[in-house]
Design brief:
about 230 residues; mainly beta; 8-stranded mixed β-barrel; 3 helices
Length: about 230
């Protein structure tokens, strides 16, 4: 995984520190944090679960974009290394995964787990707050696996308000979040501020692809993103 913080795209990161919208957020909409590669997915059955139709809509707590936990060089500047997340557990959908770390690509978009041993693991975006710090911590995961089966966040759309998400940090401490809402958003209408906006307390965003699969899309063939909103218990 490359560290995009040292290339020409470091300026938008600095802008986010001053309250602007990080350019990666806009580019991130193309992949939704958990974008799956199109190769080999056309035969997937059944499609990944989606939230109920009533789940589409606004979520409270949106605001301006949060300040990053990384500086323009791409290194974490404020987080105690021991507080960085190491694993995630979501009992309601049977997810237990070590957490890898992703940053930015050279084009300013968010990296996703690459093909290889970490492909089916969830990943924490190091430009977001560490879980348990104030702000929306972002964890992404693929919906389709490297073996053309379900990946780590395949059932993310099955989560419901009240379900718990537990994140373990490198120092052994645990942070528990409670799901507030599960939303399905068209990628072309991704609500940046609702997902990445400042929050009054520690929150969590889980993101993957969802909706119908469109083989004509240039990026991940899924037309939508599933986003889980959760707050610290």
């Amino acid at each position: 995984m490359t560290d995009a913080g040292r290339d020409k795209h470091e300026t938008p990161v600095a802008q986010r520190r001053n309250g602007g919208i990080l350019s990666v957020i806009a580019a991130f909409l193309l992949v939704g944090g958990g974008a799956a590669v199109a190769t080999g997915l056309l035969d997937q059955t059944p499609p990944p679960p989606a939230p109920p139709a009533s789940a589409a809509g606004p979520v409270s707590g949106a605001g301006t974009a949060p300040a990053p936990s990384t500086d323009p060089s791409g290194s974490t500047s404020t987080a105690d290394p021991g507080s960085r997340p190491s694993s995630i557990r979501i009992p309601a959908i049977g997810v237990t995964s070590d957490l890898t770390v992703v940053g930015l690509k050279k084009d300013g978009s968010l990296q996703v787990p690459k093909p290889g041993p970490d492909y089916d693991k969830a990943a924490w975006f190091k430009g977001s707050p560490v879980p348990g710090a104030v702000g929306p911590s972002v964890i992404e995961g693929h919906v389709d696996g490297k073996a053309n089966g379900p990946s780590v966040f395949y059932r993310l759309g099955n989560l419901r308000p009240g379900n718990k998400v537990m994140v373990t940090r490198k120092d052994g401490s645990k942070v528990t979040f409670v799901v507030n809402a599960v939303r399905l958003y068209p990628k072309d209408e991704f609500p940046t501020l609702k997902v990445y906006g400042n929050t009054r307390g520690p929150e969590l965003r889980l993101i993957t692809c969802g909706g119908p699969f469109d083989s004509n899309r240039a990026e991940s063939g899924y037309t939508d993103n599933v986003v889980v909103f959760a707050s610290q218990a």
